[in-house]
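seq as requested:
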Amino acid sequence: MAIDISDLGNKRIIIIEGIAGSGKDTFQKQLSDHYTQKGFIVYNFSEEELLFSWKHFWIKNIEMHRIHYLHSLLDYCVKLIKENPKTIITLNRFHITYAIFSKFNRKAKKLYDVLMKRLRKLPVHIFIGKLEEREIQKRALHSERKEKIWKIHQKKRLKEFKFDSLLELYKAEQNIILKIAQKQKIPFSFIKVQK
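struct tokens:
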């Protein structure tokens, strides 16, 4: 992997974002292996642990729980870094996903804005997996998933977001991720992950 500690300076919290199939899990493993070999202590958090899995998507009234959890997780990250500067934390999805999928009420929006201010002050770097349209068709649709509930979830998402096809939905979602990243004033890079 063409990543070096010097590329990230003092960044110790690494957020990995991107649409389905963009290589988040693969890249998280590559980062973990890379930093472990460099002698760092690596803490990996997956999207399921962050309550962003598609399995949690339809739980009602979960937004405030999620955002309080994100703040608690940041508290924990700060503690880990203070205890040992040779700590790296990788977060497979975090605040961008939350912003896309949540219907903010005023209280949640206020807490989200505080979260953004906190992130800007911390040693954070965001990596965003980016797919070309032909790759979205091949990778993001997760045709290898055979569970009936996955198909049900996909149909509900199309209806919820008013799209005719999953390809169009994922293209729009990727554009939103890129726009949020550009606005938030937190260092980020695009990545192409080969599977």
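Residues 63-83 form the longest helix (21 residues).
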